[in-house]
Design a protein that fits this description.
This protein is an alpha/beta fold. The protein has twelve helices and ten strands. The strands form two sheets. Strands 1-2-3-5-7-10 form a six-stranded mixed beta sheet, with helices on both faces. Helix 1 links the parallel strand 2 and strand 3. The model has no long low-confidence stretch (mean pLDDT about 95). It binds acetoacetyl-coenzyme A (CAA). The site of acetoacetyl-coenzyme A has 22 residues, from helix 2, strand 6 and helix 5. Pfam families: ECH_1 (PF00378).
């Protein structure tokens, strides 16, 4: 099952329809070593396959979401090893293997790869004092898991350049003000509750419509507006072929709660 035991993460289903992955490598502030990423990918694949889970929350601890890729693991890496093993490419499994919505609940440090991991989520919630940043420049490298691309799309070129070239951090409050985070919470407890509650709300809808909505919004990041709007319209049209469209609209007319068939 999705809830087998892991070394660097904890996996559970705390609410109906909701899967939770908690990064759990506290001594290294959840530094994202390769075995941790492998476990994360395994857990997300299991949630994708699970008939009970409809939305997933990814979190760390109060102190750290993740302090980045594991610097000690990376230090001896050569160009040819990084290149031939396509180092960090498997991190993107997060965005391709999981078709169900992923909410990142970020408290504490979300630096380097930790910030990039959070930016891969469909929805990002954080605490006001979360500490985001892309400090790779201080290590003689650059972000390698999408930071130069996703952060730039999220905050615009001016801010992204400023952050990535200086390596300075930004707070959870900044993240919310700049549109990186959808919501900001006063503390970790409220954050996790908010993320689980949103996941539960999403899990209450038609799985077909939810997957289509996620897919269509994500297309906006890759396509020109005209192509994106056309793509959306095609997906919208296709949903009239589902039972859940009939069920949802009939329930509205009858002032009843829809009983989704997820088909
Ligand atoms: N990799 C490996 N170990 C890490 C780590 C990382 N990214 N971040 C923290 N740790 C380890 C520390 O080495 C330390 O271990 P020891 O107790 O064995 O010394 C432990 O976690 C606790 O860390 P600190 O003592 O440093 O804790 P702090 O509270 O004083 O500082 C911090 C916290 C500011 C987050 C600091 O740990 C830090 O700057 N970490 C590195 C952040 C960073 O540069 N991240 C980017 C990595 S590069 C990257 O991610 C590439 C990419 O794009 C994918």
């Amino acid at each position: 099952s999705a809830c087998r035991s892991y070394e660097f993460i904890e996996v559970s289903e705390p609410r109906p329809g909701v899967g939770l992955v908690k990064l759990n490598r506290p001594k290294a502030l959840n530094a994202l070593c390769s075995p941790l990423i492998d476990e994360l990918n395994t857990a997300l694949r299991a949630f994708q396959a699970s008939p009970t889970v409809a939305a997933v929350v990814l979190t760390g601890s109060e102190r750290a979401f993740a302090a980045g890729a594991d610097i000690k693991e990376m230090a001896p890496l050569t160009f040819s090893e990084a290149y031939t093993k396509s180092f960090i490419e498997s991190w993107s499994d997060l965005t391709t293997a999981l078709k169900k919505p992923l909410i990142a609940a970020v408290a504490g440090h979300a630096l380097g790869g930790g910030c990039e991991l959070a930016l891969m989520a469909d929805i990002l919630y954080c605490t006001a004092n979360a500490n985001f940043g892309q400090p790779e420049i201080k290590l003689g490298v650059i972000p390698g898991a999408g930071g130069t691309q996703r952060l730039t799309r999220a905050v615009g070129k001016a801010r992204a350049m400023d952050l990535i070239l200086t390596g300075r951090s930004f707070s959870g409050e900044d993240a919310e003000r700049w549109g990186v985070a959808a919501k900001v919470f006063p503390d970790y407890e409220a954050l996790l509750e908010g993320a689980l509650s949103t996941a539960e709300t999403i899990a209450g809808y038609s799985k077909v419509a939810v997957q289509a909505a996620k897919e269509a919004v994500n297309k906006s990041q890759d396509l020109a507006l005209r192509d994106g709007v056309e793509y959306e319209r095609r997906v919208f049209h296709s949903l009239f072929g589902t039972n859940d469209q009939k069920i949802g609209m009939k329930a509205f007319a009858e002032k009843k709660k829809p009983e989704w068939t997820h088909s």
